[in-house]
Amino acid sequence: MTTPGEYTIGAVDLQTATDAVVQEIAQFRQELAIEQRPEDPPTPLEVIAQWLRARPPGQWRAVFVARDRGGKLAGYGIAARNLKDTQNSHIRWSEIAVKPEHRRRGLGRALFGRVLESVAGQGDGLTMISETTDRAPSGEAFASAIGAKPGLPMKMNQLDLRAVDRTRIAEWSRAAPKGYRLERIDDTVADKFVKPYIEASEGINDMPRGDIAFNDWKLTDAQIRQRESFFKQAGLTWWLLLAVDERTGEGVAFTEVEFNPLDPHAIQQEGTAVVAAHRGHGIGLWLKAVMLERILAERPDSRFIRTGNANVNAQMLAINDKLGFRYAWQSTLWQLPIADARKTLAGAEAPARA
Predict the structure, then answer these.
(1) What's the pTM?
(2) Rounded to whole angstroms, how far apart are CA atoms 254 and 199?
(3) Which of 100, 212, 241, 261 could form a disulfide with 152 if both were Cys (CB 3.0 to 4.6 A apart)?
(4) Do residues 149 and 336 make contact, with C-beta atoms less than 8 angstroms apart?
(5) Whole-angstrom Cα distance, residue 152 to residue 207?
(6) Is the pLDDT at 351 greater than 50, yes or no?
């Protein structure tokens, strides 16, 4: 498809694309990361390329690449949907990225138009969700320009592993609440832990969601295997700590991290939650302290742990502050009903001028 103006946009399947095409996109993603986090060492291109090619069963994805008249990459647009998450089947994730020298020429709008076309026929009442950071103001400006609304502001906090108070972490990790035990799970959840993990995951649904259009998350065996497949395809290591009620055998809390051993600089803290009936016993702090002790012992080449928390999630922010996490930057989840997005684009000028 040729856009009005100087760009050509075409669909790409990242699983079957040539190494040259994937490498080109990986190079651009590396440049975007440097733009947003210049203090970090560049992520190796082979790490990014492997992540781009990964696609677990049950994920639908459409990728569009824009090129200038010389055939050079100018930007891309992505739409994605998780078919395994039946509670949030109305959600479509999108990402639009344009190289700095091609911004403010309508290319982002043209790419977003292709993203919208890709979800045509997938049902009514769909909502597009994207994420921006205040370290790239152009993303926030674009989201506003297409009519998206901020649904969930979040703080990205990070823990400098060189500054951790190891003595206090050791104390907290040994302060096991009475009546609970921990199960350590690496990369694959054994069948016997699937039910307790699903039970513990229910705690995530009590966390603040702002105005974002998420329904409760109901973890299933299929979703667990889907995530495991993605992590393995992408070259990621996944560590899960599961707290179990010794009396009933039920899962009551969990915390998890993931990282790429070939890109050790920053470890990503994923979900942490405690089921409501078991709060007030210090389980959350205990879990995170035990995980942190392991990271300090086994990942000496890592510098930071990073995690995103909703601005209004006071309880988790308090735990992270106690552990030593500090504010790094702001990110925001934006949402836009697809019906409204189509009206916005239809009422605008030609995409190359918008």
Answers:
(1) 0.93
(2) 10
(3) 212
(4) yes
(5) 12
(6) no
Q: Please give the structure tokens belonging to residue 32.
A: 């975007």
Q: What is the residue type of 315?
A: Q
pLDDT in tens, 20-35: 999 999 999 999 999 9
Query: Taking the chain, what is the end-to-end CA distance rounded to the nearest angstrom?
Result: 18
Q: What is the CA radius of gyration of the chain?
A: 21
DSSP assignments along 32-58, one per residue:
HHHHH-TTSPPPPHHHHHHHHH---TT
DSSP characters for 233-266?
HHT-EEEEEEEEETTT--EEEEEEEEEETTEEEE
CA distance 128 to 79: 9
Burial 140-162 (b: 16+ CB within 10 A, else e): bebbeebbbebbbebbbbbbebe
* Token pair for 245: 């009620």
